Amino acid sequence: MKTLLMICLSASLLACADPVKKTTQEMELAKNTETQPTSCQEVIEKIARKLDEKSRETLRKTKKEGLALFHFSWGMGIRNSFGLWKDQSPVRLSCAERVGQKDIHPDNASGIIMEEVWKLVNSDNISK
């Protein structure tokens, strides 16, 4: 009985592993074939265009000062997805230019991006 249970458990784990692997491969393929933004403005526009209605509503309900609450979630996703940690990241350097700096910390760059997306959502000025 114990052996049968182990076989069933192993089979179910193997069945679950394949779709996860396929999804990961599909995400990597999409990531590699999609043109990555090279400026702060391009990232802002891309994120704003791709927001679903629930996310837009969340941003509409959030005060500007409340964006800091998204630092370890949305902000981390921005930093990792758009290469803000890379040396000489063109997006990070472009964000730095927006605030009159030569370079800034990736945390600050993602903060600029989140704030600008927030402004776009709250102005309803998003081109689709």
TrEMBL record:
Which ranges carry the DUF6794 domain? 37-119
Q: Where is the signal peptide?
A: 1-17
Top-level taxon of origin? Bacteria
Protein keywords: Signal
Please name the InterPro entries in this protein's record: DUF6794
Alphabetized Pfam families for the sequence = DUF6794 (PF20594)
Listed name of the protein:
DUF6794 domain-containing protein
Which organism does this sequence originate in? Undibacterium cyanobacteriorum
Q: What is the lineage of its organism?
A: Bacteria, Pseudomonadati, Pseudomonadota, Betaproteobacteria, Burkholderiales
